[in-house]
Amino acid sequence: MTSSHRLLLENAQQVVLVCVRGERFLTGSALRSLAVLEGASVVVGTDGLIKAVGPAAVIQSQFSGETFEERIDCSGKCILPGLVDAHTHPVWAGERVHEFAMKLAGATYMDIHQAGGGINFTVEHTRQASEEELFCSFQQRLQCMMRAGTTLVECKSGYGLNLETELKMLRVIERARRELHLSLSATYCGAHSVPKGKTAVEAADDIINHHLPRLKELSRNGDLHVDNIDVFCEKGVFDLDTTRRILEGGKKMGLQINFHGDELHPMKAAELGAELGAQAISHLEEVSDEGIAAMAAARCSAVLLPTTAYMLRLKQPRARKMLDEGVIVALGSDFNPNAYCFSMMGTFDLPVWRPS
Ligand SMILES: N=CN[C@@H](CCC(=O)O)C(=O)O
Ligand SMILES: [Zn+2]
């Protein structure tokens, strides 16, 4: 009996496999020798999964007599894996274009934040928006990301800060996970900013005593799938102690630690993340040498966000040093109302890789 397959990508000039032994990541000098097949074909099965990759002649003889719903001649073309966007804030209402003028006039990210703008502005608008409204704009944003080659997106909540709106955002992410054709990793980021009227300690207590237990219950019932916990660990936001308490609370309920650290000020966030067994830390423009070494030893990924450093006129993170020291380095667009970038290819063009 002849088998039928969904797709044959035939005779590509290159198929980039990245790795051949099923490694979950490459570090250091291994990154200089990516696995690339020349003159190769790829077969995709009816379940959407890759059935075979190999030299075009081998695939041709192996699948001779079998049928394909579609064949694409890839001569002269390169087949790449889907891009992974490891850091986004894609669920929100309320444009912040007016802040660009403030920044051009000299205001810093924190000036705007402390004056009640920035994240706080988005929180007010997101609290007022309906779940349907949030889903519609989120869906459009994800479609723009897919068109730019992204197939897996890490999506954060964090523009609610109160339990009600954080859950509304997580439900929107959950719905997209179920209805749309791309992979999502959901991050609870209830500690994205200190809500008006609370201190950081009070906000941390609220998260630990009310948000996390409710999330645990909803996850246990299968109503929500949350993968990660995030905190904005920054001077004037959550300090190292409150960050530690919140991350430990999330870890205890089975969430992976994946947080914002060492962005605007050196906070020793990298050292904390390494100690807590964090999966990833984002930003790291101000990471210390000790923090880099600790992250390498702990196999903690650095998620670098070149777009943000460019937008906020920060120094770029020390990507080259991190790579040379064996840190796992990933990239994110950091799509958010302040960094309007859907495209991972856009992040590759920024000068983060140049030796400093
Ligand atoms: N630094 C904190 N959070 C975001 C910005 C979110 C916002 O400004 O709305 C970031 O990763 O860049
Ligand atoms: Zn962020």
Detail the poorly predicted runs.
Answer: none
Q: What's the tally of helices?
A: 13
Mean pLDDT rating: 95
How many strand elements?
13
Total tally of structural domains: 2
Fold-level CATH name of the largest domain: TIM Barrel
Q: Which structural class matches the secondary elements?
A: alpha/beta
Quaternary state of the chains: single chain
**Distance N to C terminus:** 60 Å
Biggest beta-sheet profile: 8 strands, parallel
InterPro entries: Amidohydro-rel, HutI, Metal-dep_hydrolase_composite, Metal_Hydrolase
Keywords: Histidine metabolism, Hydrolase, Iron, Metal-binding, Zinc
GO cellular component, one term: cytoplasm
GO molecular function, one term: metal ion binding
What can you tell me about this protein's structure?
With 356 residues, the protein is of the alpha/beta class. It has two domains: 4-79, Urease, subunit C, domain 1, CATH 2.30.40; 83-353, Metal-dependent hydrolases (TIM Barrel, Alpha-Beta Barrel). The protein has 13 helices and 13 strands. It has helices spanning 56-62, 98-104, 109-114, 119-128, 131-147, 163-179, 200-220, 240-252, 269-276, 289-298, 306-311, 319-324, 344-348, and strands at residues 4-18, 35-44, 50-55, 67-73, 78-79, 83-88, 150-156, 183-191, 228-231, 256-261, 280-283, 301-304, 329-331. An eight-stranded parallel β-sheet has the order 6-7-8-9-10-11-12-13. Strands 1, 2, 3, 4 and 5 form a five-stranded mixed β-sheet that branches. Helix 7 links the parallel strand 8 and strand 9. Helix 5 packs across helix 6, helix 7 runs parallel beside helix 8 (240-252) and helix 9 (269-276) packs parallel to helix 10. The longest helix is centred in the middle third of the chain and has 21 residues, at 200-220. The protein is globular and about 70 Å long. The termini are far apart. The structure holds N-(iminomethyl)-L-glutamic acid (NIG) and zinc ion. Belongs to the metallo-dependent hydrolases superfamily. HutI family. This is Probable imidazolonepropionase. It is an enzyme of class 3 (hydrolase). One of its GO terms (biological process) is L-histidine catabolic process to glutamate and formate. Residues 79-347 form the Amidohydrolase-related domain.
